[in-house]
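TL;DR need structure tokens for one chain.
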Amino acid sequence: QVQLAESGGGLVQPGGSLRLSCAASGSNLMFNDMGWYRQAPGKERELVAAITSDGSTKYADSVKGRFAVSRDNAKNTVYLQMKNLKPEDTAVYYCKVDWYYSDYDGLDFGAWGQGTQVTVSS
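>> reply
TL;DR here they are.
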């Protein structure tokens, strides 16, 4: 089973930047897509950014040009660099990874991080 550790959230002023990290750990695991979702008060959880195992990315229209998702496969870590943050970016951000056992690829799993709060306010 996989453990996800999120970090990097906090309070930032409009126009500021934050970098979120999500480190996955476990024994004999391999990872496919990794990504970030967010959920603001009163709204449904939405996909923010995702990255495949070979580095292909996609973004929500609302964050294109401001956010960048990346991954370090050696560290089993996915990042979300957020720039020019806006108050509407305020939400709980969740890491999600798709994974499978290295010695058995017949089963696929998904795991969610605990969430990290991002608040953009002056």
